[in-house]
Amino acid sequence: MDIKLETYNPQKHDQDKLAELIFASDPEMNGIVYGEKPLEVIKTLLNVPETYFLPQYTKCVMLDGDLVGVVVYYPTSKRQEVDKLAGQGFMKTMGFWGFAKRFFLYMKMEKMLGGEIDDDGLYIHTLAVDSGVRGRGIGSAVIRALEQENEKMYLYVNGGNEGAIRFYKRNGFTDIFYDEMTHKGETYGEFLMEKKGS
């Protein structure tokens, strides 16, 4: 199987499909983060300069010329810088009041996403493979491709997403931290997972 990781190009790659893939990486948490119209918000964020989805951090996973996945990642040393930038993008995209309405939620999420992350690794913000081609080793091939850049990686995964947790453990990740938050009477949890070099 010959997958290629192509740098996201707004003029070339299907933004509707990309937004769907990003949302599908964790529909539960992304529904909370991006609000009532998550696909519209994500698509807008794909086109602003203040976003997690900057072209230098967003790779389209291509199989035989088709967009079948996405991975968004950057050096762990840039996490605070990227988070701050993305906060500005959220405010611009959602408007001041839309952002202000979600501000305390974002603060709770930030607290939940704790744990120790070294500054010399890669942080995977988003990894998603189209449901129609899952089970063919595409996600594992993406992890192997990222290992060529840096063998040490970190990511958060929804504590309720058992399939994703199994996938990451199969690919050498271990969970090193867990925390929860409550939102509208529901409890949500996230594992911080780490993959160290061999």
By CATH, the superfamily comes out as: Gcn5-related N-acetyltransferase (GNAT)
Taking pLDDT < 50 over at least 5 consecutive residues as the criterion, the unreliable ranges are: none
Q: Helical segment tally? A: 6
Structural class: alpha+beta
Largest sheet: 7 strands, mixed
Number of domains in the coordinates? 1
What is the 3D form?
A: globular
Q: Give the terminus-to-terminus CA distance.
A: 24 Å
Percent of residues in β-strands? 25-35%
Proportion in helices = 25-40%
Explain the overall architecture.
- This protein has 198 residues and is an alpha+beta fold.
- It is built from six helices and seven strands.
- The chain has helices spanning 15-24, 27-34, 38-45, 79-112, 138-147, 162-170; strands at residues 3-7, 58-63, 66-75, 122-129, 153-158, 174-183, 186-195.
- It has a seven-stranded mixed β-sheet with strand order 1-2-3-4-5-7-6, with helices on both faces.
- A hairpin with a 2-residue loop joins strand 6 and strand 7 (186-195).
- Helix 1 packs across helix 3 and helix 2 (27-34) crosses helix 3 (38-45).
List keywords for this structure.
single chain, 198 residues, alpha+beta, Aminopeptidase, 7-stranded mixed beta sheet, 6 helices, 40% helix, globular
Annotate the secondary structure layout:
Layout: E1 3-7, H1 15-24, H2 27-34, H3 38-45, E2 58-63, E3 66-75, H4 79-112, E4 122-129, H5 138-147, E5 153-158, H6 162-170, E6 174-183, E7 186-195
Parallel strand pairs: 4-5
Antiparallel strand pairs: 1-2, 2-3, 3-4, 5-7, 6-7
Helix pairs in contact: 1-3, 2-3
